[in-house]
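[Discussion] Sanity-checking designs against the backbone

I'm trying to build intuition for which residues belong where. Below is a structure token string of 239 positions. I'd appreciate it if someone posts a full sequence so I can compare it with mine line by line.
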């Protein structure tokens, strides 16, 4: 199966021209580009090969498209803009926006009902991992159970240990692959499992060489076109 690379731009870049430039530079098959909301429509129009992603979506998706939810964006709106994938449950949203598993579960079901492919992020904090990989698996299992309750639709899991995100300290790939295999045994139907957390061109191969790691969710390194293109090239060689 083709490996998948998700470019998660988070709250970057500042302007639309920069966003379009970056999107064009990263516009390759097997890539999902996830700009911040203000740029989603325009970046989507600029892409020819990459798929368009969003970094979040609300849990209500009124069929008529609207509702009294100030500041929110519905899965149906995103779908109409050409978005195919939506990242849900990212640890930064769990932390800064107080998203709970219950909220994430509602979002997962609404996004799937609207026909979006969900990239669900799960991963344990440092104090859990310190106590061993078994504890990390149990933590992830609880997240998966809660976040996916009653969910039916297209699903990709991004395993992202919280302590590895944006720290320059990626996971140990030998342990990542064990957790990826564990996720594939636990979730039915078997999803694709990506790794995320300080992925760069220097460590891409260490993770993606494993058949059970189906790609990567890339934050910081996806903001540098040259660096991200190197990650794409390395990934292509592995499949
Ligand atoms: P990072 O972010 O690549 O900057 O660590 C990963 C992520 O957003 O999940």
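Best answer:
Here's mine. Compare freely.
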């Amino acid at each position: 199966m083709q490996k998948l690379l998700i470019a998660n731009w988070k709250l970057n870049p500042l302007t639309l021209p920069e966003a379009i430039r970056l999107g064009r530079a990263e516009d390759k098959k097997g890539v999902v580009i996830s700009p911040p909301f203000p740029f989603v429509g325009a970046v989507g129009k600029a892409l020819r090969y990459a798929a368009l992603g969003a970094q979040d979506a609300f849990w209500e998706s009124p069929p008529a498209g609207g509702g009294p939810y100030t500041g929110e964006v519905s899965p149906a709106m995103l779908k109409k803009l050409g978005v195919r994938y939506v990242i849900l449950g990212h640890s930064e949203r769990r932390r800064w926006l107080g998203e709970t598993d219950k909220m994430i579960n509602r979002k997962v079901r609404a996004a799937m009902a609207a026909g979006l492919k969900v990239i669900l992020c799960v991963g344990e904090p440092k104090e859990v991992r310190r106590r061993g990989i078994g504890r990390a698996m149990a933590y992830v299992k609880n997240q998966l159970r809660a976040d996916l309750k009653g969910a039916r639709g297209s699903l990709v899991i991004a395993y992202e240990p919280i302590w590895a995100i944006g720290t320059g300290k990626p996971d140990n790939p030998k342990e990542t692959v064990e957790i990826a295999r564990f996720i594939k045994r636990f979730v039915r139907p078997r999803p694709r499992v990506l790794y995320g957390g300080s992925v760069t061109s220097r460590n891409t191969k260490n993770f993606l060489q494993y058949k059970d790691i189906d790609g990567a969710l890339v934050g910081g390194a996806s903001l540098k076109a040259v660096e991200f293109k190197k990650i794409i090239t390395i990934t292509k060689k592995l499949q």
